[in-house]
Amino acid sequence: MKLAFTTLGCPNWDMETIISQAVECGYDGVDFRGFLGQMEIYKLPEFSSEIETTKKRFKEAALEIPCFSSSVRLFTTSEEELNKFLGELKEYGKLCNEFNTPYIRVFGGSIGNISREEAFNIVESNLRDMLKIAEEYDITLLLETHDDWTRCEYVHEILKRAESKHIQVLWDIHHPYRTVGESPQLTWDTLGENIKYTHWKDSYIKKDTVRGYQLCLLGNGDIPLGKIYHILKENGYTGYFTLEWEKLWCPEIEEPEEAFSQYARFMKELEEEFAY
């Protein structure tokens, strides 16, 4: 089992701390979603002028960067915004080639009052240019089950229209179950052959919050984590199990020092249970 965490969960850690904590807790990789306040990490020295030093540090620590989590959205009706997203994809494509990273996470985005069919058409059109970049850098875009594209049938329709091996699925195992009441088995049955990467989190219902739920340490909520793990392993999933601890957006949740070590222990226990 390959474990990673996204840097969304440790917004104040420097590179030394990220690497040392990953090694100490038994992780295999780090998924970058921002670094020290900058979401567009390719603008930072660590991923530009000092990139060789960063590459060396990850290699010496035997750590991978399995995915770069971008802010790119497939749905936009703005040509200016689309061009911005295309530029961002190119920058991440370059980083993928530097770090031998296969994936870039992308969002579907909010469609507002536009009909679902029109949204499909807009995404299909935007994807043509995005996939050219993915093909150029020989990487794969991962559409996350998130926002207005959480339901598996919506994601499946995009894959069908794209007809490209360069777009696959990131199954955020929390969102479909929690926000649209989708069963994990339905998600897998619909998208399984295209699921290449997973994000993990747990929560419980809390109606007096903006989201209607409270994020928590894994196992302290009611997301069927064990069932989801079993579905993945029974069907031969070999990708990463990545903790998306949303500390940047939810400062009230536990500190990364606690959450990251707890997640590694929790997932190892799941692995041992499945082995029996």
UniProtKB/TrEMBL annotation:
Pfam families (UniProt xref) = AP_endonuc_2 (PF01261)
Q: What is this protein called?
A: Sugar phosphate isomerase/epimerase
Q: Where is the Xylose isomerase-like TIM barrel domain?
A: 20-269
Keywords (alphabetical) are: Isomerase
Query: Which Gene3D superfamilies has this protein been placed in?
Result: Divalent-metal-dependent TIM barrel enzymes
One annotated GO molecular function is: isomerase activity
The highest taxon in the source lineage is Bacteria
For the keyword Zinc, the answer is no
Q: What is the lineage of its organism?
A: Bacteria, Bacillati, Bacillota, Bacilli, Bacillales
Q: Which InterPro entries match?
A: IolE/XylAMocC-like, Xyl_isomerase-like_sf, Xyl_isomerase-like_TIM-brl
